[in-house]
Amino acid sequence: MDSITTIAIASIITAGVTTTFGTMMPAIGEGRAVSAALTSIAQQPDAAPTITRTLFVGLAMIESTAIYCFVVSMILIFANPFWNYVLAN
Amino acid sequence: MDSITTIAIASIITAGVTTTFGTMMPAIGEGRAVSAALTSIAQQPDAAPTITRTLFVGLAMIESTAIYCFVVSMILIFANPFWNYVLAN
Amino acid sequence: MDSITTIAIASIITAGVTTTFGTMMPAIGEGRAVSAALTSIAQQPDAAPTITRTLFVGLAMIESTAIYCFVVSMILIFANPFWNYVLAN
Amino acid sequence: MDSITTIAIASIITAGVTTTFGTMMPAIGEGRAVSAALTSIAQQPDAAPTITRTLFVGLAMIESTAIYCFVVSMILIFANPFWNYVLAN
Amino acid sequence: MDSITTIAIASIITAGVTTTFGTMMPAIGEGRAVSAALTSIAQQPDAAPTITRTLFVGLAMIESTAIYCFVVSMILIFANPFWNYVLAN
Amino acid sequence: MDSITTIAIASIITAGVTTTFGTMMPAIGEGRAVSAALTSIAQQPDAAPTITRTLFVGLAMIESTAIYCFVVSMILIFANPFWNYVLAN
Amino acid sequence: MDSITTIAIASIITAGVTTTFGTMMPAIGEGRAVSAALTSIAQQPDAAPTITRTLFVGLAMIESTAIYCFVVSMILIFANPFWNYVLAN
Amino acid sequence: MDSITTIAIASIITAGVTTTFGTMMPAIGEGRAVSAALTSIAQQPDAAPTITRTLFVGLAMIESTAIYCFVVSMILIFANPFWNYVLAN
Amino acid sequence: MDSITTIAIASIITAGVTTTFGTMMPAIGEGRAVSAALTSIAQQPDAAPTITRTLFVGLAMIESTAIYCFVVSMILIFANPFWNYVLAN
Amino acid sequence: MDSITTIAIASIITAGVTTTFGTMMPAIGEGRAVSAALTSIAQQPDAAPTITRTLFVGLAMIESTAIYCFVVSMILIFANPFWNYVLAN
Amino acid sequence: MDSITTIAIASIITAGVTTTFGTMMPAIGEGRAVSAALTSIAQQPDAAPTITRTLFVGLAMIESTAIYCFVVSMILIFANPFWNYVLAN
Amino acid sequence: MDSITTIAIASIITAGVTTTFGTMMPAIGEGRAVSAALTSIAQQPDAAPTITRTLFVGLAMIESTAIYCFVVSMILIFANPFWNYVLAN
Amino acid sequence: MDSITTIAIASIITAGVTTTFGTMMPAIGEGRAVSAALTSIAQQPDAAPTITRTLFVGLAMIESTAIYCFVVSMILIFANPFWNYVLAN
Amino acid sequence: MDSITTIAIASIITAGVTTTFGTMMPAIGEGRAVSAALTSIAQQPDAAPTITRTLFVGLAMIESTAIYCFVVSMILIFANPFWNYVLAN
Predict the structure, then answer these.
(1) Nearest to J66 by CA among H62, C11, I34
(2) How far apart are CA G50 and CA E16, in angstroms?
(3) pLDDT tens profile L8-67
(4) Which CATH number describes the domain made up of M3-81?
(5) Which residue of K has its CA nearest to I64?
(6) Which of B17, B72, B80 is most worth mutating to test chain A (most A CB atoms within 10 A of its CB)?
(7) Domain J3-79 CATH class label
(8) d(CA H77, CA N80)
(9) Every domain of chain D and the residues it spans
(10) I23 secondary structure, DSSP code
(11) What architecture is the H3-88 domain classified under in CATH?
(12) With an 8 Å Cβ cutoff, are J20 and H17 in contact?
């Protein structure tokens, strides 16, 4: 296989794997956070505003790690400097 | 194998794997969130509206990580820039 | 092996694996959600309508991740663009 | 190996693996759901009709994911488009 | 190896693996269901008829996933269309 | 290696693996069921006849999955259609 | 390697692996059952005869799965039909 | 493959893997921390300011380990000294 | 490698592995049984004779699975029929 | 591949893996420590200063293990003695 | 490699692995048994003689599985019949 | 590859792996110790000085195992006797 | 590679692996035993002499399994009969 | 590769792996022991001297298993008899 094909394949596979495994654990972490929020609201309904506000901040933090992976994946598909280099040469 | 075949195979496998493993953990996370919601409603039926509203927001956040994977998978099948490049050359 | 055979094999294996592993975790998640629903009904029989309604919404969300995988699997078997391309060439 | 043999082998193995691993987790999920149902009936015998009805709906949902795998497996054995193509050519 | 030998070996191994791993989780799931039934009977002896009836329905559902695997295994050994094809040619 | 040797080896290994791993989980499941039965008898000695009867039905169901594997294993050793075919040819 | 050596090696390894892994889980299951029996006797000393009788039936069922593996292992070492065939030819 | 292609591929794969697996555990850790915060607020609503402040400091510490991985990943894609060396030679 | 060497090596490795992994789980199972016995004696010192008697029966059953593996291992080292055959030929 | 390319690739991969896996467990450990701190503050708000002070010392200790890995990773990328040697020769 | 070297290497590796993995689980089992003994003594100091006596019997049983592995390991190093055979020939 | 390159690569990879995996479990152990300390302070604030002093001794012991790995890693990078030997020859 | 080198390498790797993995589980087992001892002393300070005496006997038993591995490791490095044989020939 | 290089590489890798994995479990065991000590002090502050004394003896025992691995690692790097032999020849 020539360079272009090899780099294309490596980019495709890495992009898929990055998004796939990178979003696994955030989904688990968010599920755990949401569960705790729901249990907490049931236990102390008066604190629901504080709980949901803290929940959303926490979800944003956790989601950010999934975003990192999605960004790397998009870079590898649409703005891959190595791909651009081999195309230009 | 020539470049076109190789990239096609890599795209097929990556697309399948991305959707497969990328939807695994969201399913677990959503199951956990739904479980907590049901337990919470049983414990505090009066807070059911707040609980279901928070649940739906949380499910949307978790589902979003599955959507990322589905999107990457669809890009690899129907809008793959590497595939388009090798077809064009 | 020629291109057609290789792509056919990759499609067969990926289609099977996608459905197989993609339905694993939804089954677990649904089992967990149903368990929580049953325990909750036993604990608070008066809230059964709210619980079953929330359960069905949650099952639909979890099942959707299994559907994504089934859809990708069907696309790979019956509407595979890479297969169509190599057949057309 | 020629194309026909290779595709036959891939279909055999994929069909077996799909059914095998695809029915693993539904079995676990159903076992968990049944366990919860039995525990719930013991705790609240008066709610047995509601519990068993919800249980059967839930089992149907979980079983559906096993059915998806069985269907894909049957398609690969008895209605495999790739097999039909190589036989026809 | 010629086609007949290869397909025979693939069928033997797949048949064994399908039954083996396909009956693993049903055994676990049934063990869990039976355990829950026994614990429930001990807790609420008056509900024993309802519990055992629900248990048997549940065991049948779980056993069905093991049956799927056994059926696929028997098809691969005694009614394998790919084997029949290569024998006929 | 010729066909006869290859099929013999595949049959030996598959037969061993099928019995081995196929009896793993039933042993665990039965251990769990027996444990639950013993705990239940200690908790409610008056329900011992109902518990042991339910236990034996459950053990039979779980053991049946181990029997499936043992049967497949015996078929592969003593009534293997692929082995008979290659011997006859 | 000739056929005799290959089949001998496959038989040796399979026999060892079958006994080894086939007795793993019964040991665990029996340990769990014995533990439950001991805890139950301590909790309800008056039910000791019923408990030990149920325990021995359960241990026999669990041990039977280990016996299956030991039997297959002995068949492979001392009454292997494939070995007898290659010796006779 | 020549040096440039090889280093490009190693950089692509390592960059993807670093971000992917490096953000896995922070997501879990943050999910756990957020869960504990929500449970704590529900238990002691008066301490909510102290809890959220401590939570944010902790999330920052945990996020920092994800940042390390993201930084290494960005270095490997956009400021890779080995890549620069092989390009310059 | 000639037949004698190959069979010797397979026997050595299989003998070691059989004893090694075959004694793993009995050790765990016995540790669990002994733990339960000690906890039970502490909870109900008057039932110590019954408990220790049941414990020894249980340990004998569990140890028997380790004995099976040790016996197979000794057969492979000192009474290996395949080794005897290749030596005799 | 020549020496320079090989060492470059080994350095790239090792640097990525070191940071990735080396920051995994600190993230988990910190998440656990932060969780314990939050739970403790909720349980004993008066001890919050002591708890947060102990927490920060502990986080620093845990973070230090992540720093070790980051330092080794940076050494391998920017101050690699083996790379410098092969460049100088 | 000649026969002597190959058998020596297989013996060295198998001896090490047998001792290593064969002593793993006994160590865990003994740790569990000792833990239970200590907890039991603390709970019922008057039963200390019975507990320690039962503990020592149990530790001897568990240690025996480690001894099996050590014995097989010593046989492979110092009384290996296969090694003796190849030396004698 | 010549000796120098091979040893360099082995040193790089081993140094990275040693630090990476060697600091994993100390991080977990320290996280557990810190968690226990925080919980203990919340439970018994008067014993805080004793607890923190014992905590710091324990953290030092646990950190020491991470230091061993870091030291071995530094030896392999900067004071590797095998590297020095091959450079000197 | 000649015989001497091969046996040396096998001895080095086996010696390292034997000590490494052979001391893993004793460390865990001892940690569990020490934990139980400390918890027991806190619960029943008057029984401290009995507890520590039993603890030391138990630690000696557990440490003995680590010693076995260390002894085998030392035999392989400093008193290896296979190494001595190949040196003498 | 010649003998010297091969043995050097095996020594480097084994030394790293031995220290790395050999210190993993002691770190976990010590973390568990320290946690139990801290919890015990919080529960029974008057027994702190006995607890810390027992803790230090236990930590020394656990640390000893890490020391074994570190010693073997140092022997392999600085006093390797196989390395010395190949250098002398």
Answers:
(1) H62
(2) 39
(3) 999 999 999 999 998 999 999 999 999 999 999 999 898 899 999 999 999 999 999 999
(4) 1.20.20.10
(5) K65
(6) B72
(7) mainly alpha
(8) 41
(9) 3-88
(10) T
(11) Up-down Bundle (1.20)
(12) yes
